[in-house]
Amino acid sequence: MHIEDGILQPSWWVSWYAVTVAFVVPGLRQIRQRIKDNLYYKPFLAMVGVAVFVISAMHLPVPVTGSCSHPCGTPLAAIVVGPFATVVISVIVLFFQAVFFAHGGITTIGANTISMGLAGGFAGYFCWRLLRNISPVWFAAGIAGFVGDLATYLVAALELALNVNGGNIPFFKQWMLFFLGYGPTQLPLAILEGIFTAVVLQVMLTRRPDLLPGVAPVRKAVSGQPAVNN
């Protein structure tokens, strides 16, 4: 997914930067508000950022020029810290990966954020919200991880197809060819990411339900103590 410098035309990487900014601004506002409401949110956000950095740094080569295949971690991040905050995390992660590991590029941070942070994060988050009240937590989280991972690469393929559109190959076919280029490595990675997301969310719900507000049930008052909403 990490598209490298020199792959996208200037008009496209500038456009993807503009879209990214439109999501980063409300993301920063959301982060500031949550830090005010909960002092534990800031270190927790940093921990999630480190997790996304490590997970998305494990890349594999693919037959798609100037790109690679890897798990994302953003569906999980979107569930636990919010989708807009995940976009902010993705920008920071992609910047440090590009600068220190030559993984991706500076000009393509916007495009890579759109695919990994926006598409992957929001797709996973919406799947989670859709399924969490009608299915077990592990199932909702697993589907979120799987769908978010594939959404990341579907959008990355779209970005590459838009960049080279105008050839003899019809646009949709061109898009699917790029997407299929990720298929041999990304499909098993998406399944693994789904399993990983399911396990992590289930463990969090069991051991630290306070980190998942709105997911854990409300504890009933005991011996005159007030009820606690985890």
What would your notes on this structure say?
By secondary structure, the protein is mostly helical. The chain has one domain (10-213): Orthogonal Bundle (Arp2/3 complex 21 kDa subunit ARPC3). It is 69% helix and 3% strand. The strands form 2 sheets. The chain has a two-stranded antiparallel ribbon. Strands 3-4 form a two-stranded antiparallel sheet. Mean pLDDT is 87; it is low at 218-230.
Q: What is the helix content?
A: 55-70%
CA gyration radius, whole angstroms? 18 Å
The CATH architecture can be given as Orthogonal Bundle
CATH topology category name: Arp2/3 complex 21 kDa subunit ARPC3
Overall pLDDT confidence:
87
Counting structural domains, the number is 1
Structural class: mainly alpha
Question: Which sequence of SSEs, written as H and E, runs from N to C?
Answer: HHEEHHHHHEE
Provide a count of the helices.
7
By DSSP, the count of extended strands is 4
Q: Termini distance?
A: 36 Å
CATH class: Mainly Alpha
Strand content: under 5%
